[in-house]
Amino acid sequence: MKPMKPMKPMKPMKPMKPMKPMKPMKPMKPRAHALGYDVIQAFFAARLVWRPIDYHIADNRPE
User: Quick one: pLDDT at residue 35?
Assistant: First the structure.
């Protein structure tokens, strides 16, 4: 194997803008809030997990 070329040093990244502090949320009923939160979390987790897998399967489908 031939030795790899040394990589160019990367440009330093721009510092990110600090995020605006969020408005305090109105207190909700604990049960309803927990349920809604779980659903949202599950939805995002599923999207994060499944989308790459779907793309992977779609890209590598045998002819």
Answer: 64
